[in-house]
Specification:
311 residues, 14 helices, 48% helix, 8-stranded mixed sheet, 8 strands, globular, alpha/beta
Length: 311
């Protein structure tokens, strides 16, 4: 059963009316209601606040990494384990084909349903997850396979065990190693990009965000708790943090904003998957035209330009 947010209630009602009209074969009503639905979608999603975009990024029906992997890959084989401690289900690694392009896809997976969410640790990777991702990227480099990374996490897991096993070191090593990988790296924020947990698979030649995604150094809840000790200021914190795609694009922190369906990827998953697939293939083709030295130099310039300013 589909989940609707508070600001989607009018859309829900119209869609229910469409289903009822179909049931009695009243096609005139269906046509009229479809026009009403289109108008309501344009009205609702044409003026979303930053907080509403955050809600969409966390929408329970929003496609997760595994949904996109199944939609855009074929002949895919999952890679498990970091060869040091264990397999972390919060990070997925698949090697296979996207169209006619062999690819390695790495994604953070939140999980659906209580048991699966616990299994996936709510999409919060442990150090072994990031080490698994690094192992997969090194394997891709060995066989000259481009990499697609799908970011969707509240953040790296902050538990005692994760800290004991070197959470910060694992993230830092990924930042360092990914910067020198000799194959195209493309990252897409598909939902929630939180802190170092997102950054650990965000070092790439191209970093894009879906229309309804966020990328932040801290969650708005954490920000409001630290600054104001008041959970009710989450909306204020969301706006102040500038975590939505348009703000980040304007500040040159991301390269592109991917236009998922206006009504949201959670209502049209197939189209959203095609958008990611097309973006990956288009950029792999462009990056393949560069020499190895040009690829690394361009990536270096992109990474070092972040935060640059002039007086």
């Amino acid at each position: 059963m589909a989940t609707y947010l508070e600001f989607e209630k009018k859309i829900e009602q119209i869609q229910e009316d469409i289903v009822s009209a179909h049931a009695i074969a009243n096609m005139d009503s269906v046509a009229r209601l479809q026009k009403d639905l289109e108008k309501e979608v344009n009205k609702t999603f044409g003026s979303l606040s930053d907080f509403q975009k955050l809600q969409l990024a966390r929408h329970p029906d929003r496609p997760y990494s595994l949904d996109y992997i199944k939609a855009i890959m074929h002949d895919a084989y999952e890679i498990h384990g970091d060869r040091a401690f264990r397999d972390d289900p919060a990070i997925l690694c698949y090697i296979g084909w996207i169209g006619d392009q062999k690819a390695m896809v790495i994604g953070e997976q939140k999980g659906r349903g209580q048991k699966n969410k616990i299994k996936r640790n709510f999409g919060m990777p442990n150090p072994e997850g990031y080490r698994k991702a690094l192992r997969a990227v090194r394997l891709a480099e060995k066989f000259d396979i481009p990499v697609l990374m799908l970011i969707d996490t509240p953040g790296a897991y902050p538990g005692l065990g994760a800290e004991e096993r070197g959470q910060s070191e694992a993230i830092a090593k990924n930042l360092f190693e990914f910067a020198a990988v000799k194959v195209p790296l493309i990252s897409v924020v598909i939902g929630e990009g939180g802190s170092g947990g997102a950054l650990a698979i965000g070092v790439a030649d191209k970093l894009a965000m879906m229309r309804y995604s966020v990328f932040s150094v801290i969650s708005p809840e954490g920000c409001s708790a630290i600054l104001w000790n008041d959970p009710s200021k989450v909306e204020v914190a969301t706006k102040a943090l500038k975590i939505t795609p348009n703000d980040l694009y304007e500040h040159k922190l991301v390269d592109d904003v991917l236009e998922e369906p206006l009504i949201g990827a959670h209502r049209d998953k197939d189209t959203a998957a095609e958008v990611i697939k097309a973006y990956f293939l288009e950029n792999v083709k462009a990056l393949r035209e560069l020499s190895e030295d040009e690829l690394l130099e361009q990536r270096y310039q992109r990474l070092t330009a972040v935060g640059a300013f002039s007086e």
